[in-house]
Amino acid sequence: MSSSPFMNHLRNELRIRGYSMKTEKSYLYWIRYFIRFHKLKHPNQMGANEVRAFLSFLATEQHVAINTQKSALNALAFLYNKVLEQPLGNLGFQHAKQGRRLPSVLSAAEVKLIIDQIESERDRLMFALLYGSGLRISECLRIRIQDLNLEQGSLVVRCSKGNKDRTTILSRKLESSISKQIETVQLVQQQDNAKGYGPSLPFALSKKYPNAFRQLSWMYLFPSTTLSPHPLTGELCRHHLHDSVPRKILKKAVQLANIQTKRVNCHTFRHSFATHLLMAGRDIRTVQELLGHSDVSTTQIYTHVIGQYFAGTNSPLDSIL
């Protein structure tokens, strides 16, 4: 079914409109699931009633999370509103409300303790960037050499969430580690170039600039250890590390650090970055820009983490003990 003319048409529509590969994969998954749920009936022959039935199935039978329901709805809205041009209108389907969940945050000492457990200098650099620049793991892995500005202490994050670019801070303490990693990456590129290979490049760039794969600026800071086919062109190239690599490294480091009372994942370092900046008195608008949040209300969750609204309020127990 993935090779059917209809699914190929959907894939082309997503690429023409500039959707990320991650969104493309998600949308195609949910649209396939929707079609299978309705026994391979063509979407042209279905509409709002079938979409509503599918979403209800996910919520009541599959018990999927609220954000998962939203992902499925977004995929089907794209299918009907933009591709088939059969607007769904008001579905009358309401998601359960998502309660506020405070993120897990590490102390500065815990961040250092975890990073100290990591043996490889490359891997320590990876997590130092997550915390030091407030990056998502996908943003960290997609860093190219040209995105780093060691002189100014800045890092350009490209095609982030919402297909937006932003500039964030880069710790000057990482200059030596980054320089060493760039030297390693340069050797990898030279070996690849000798065989006619290079880093995976944005779509059509290799046609416009045939020798771009020979430029160090296009190399990933954290290249994959193996070559793989480009997802769009099929040509062999070197992509960045898969996100499963840092997750495995972190799991081991957290165990060695003996941190058992907190749930720690790669995103925890980004949460810690934001929280520690606010605790140090940084302006919330500045933190919003560094994180790349489009709405300051998203950044405000960290003010709850540090208990800003309870400043100066003591527990009544303090007065009797």
What does this molecule look like?
The protein has 321 residues and is mostly helical. 49% of the residues lie in helices and 4% in strands. Strand 1 and strand 2 form a beta hairpin. Helix 2 (21-37) packs across helix 4. The mean pLDDT is 89.
CATH topology value of the largest domain? hpI Integrase, Chain A
What is the residue-averaged pLDDT?
Answer: 89
Shape-level CATH architecture of the largest domain: Orthogonal Bundle
pLDDT < 50 stretches:
none
Question: Helix amount, in percent?
Answer: 40-55%
Q: In total, how many domains does the architecture comprise? A: 2
Number of helices: 14
Please give the CATH class of the largest domain. Mainly Alpha
**What's the β-strand tally?**
5
What is the CA-CA span between the terminal residues? 69 Å
Topology of this protein?
Layout: H1 5-16, H2 21-37, H3 48-60, H4 66-83, H5 108-116, H6 121-133, H7 137-141, E1 148-149, E2 154-157, E3 166-169, H8 175-194, H9 205-208, E4 228-229, E5 236-237, H10 244-257, H11 266-279, H12 284-291, H13 296-299, H14 301-305
Antiparallel strand pairs: 1-2, 2-3, 4-5
Helix pairs in contact: 1-2, 2-4, 3-4, 5-10, 6-11
Domain Tyr recombinase: 101-315
GO biological process, one term: DNA integration
Protein name: Tyrosine recombinase XerD
Question: Which short descriptors sum up this protein?
Answer:
321 residues; mainly alpha; DNA polymerase, domain 1; 3-stranded antiparallel beta sheet; DNA-binding; Integrase_integron-type; Integrase_catalytic; DNA integration
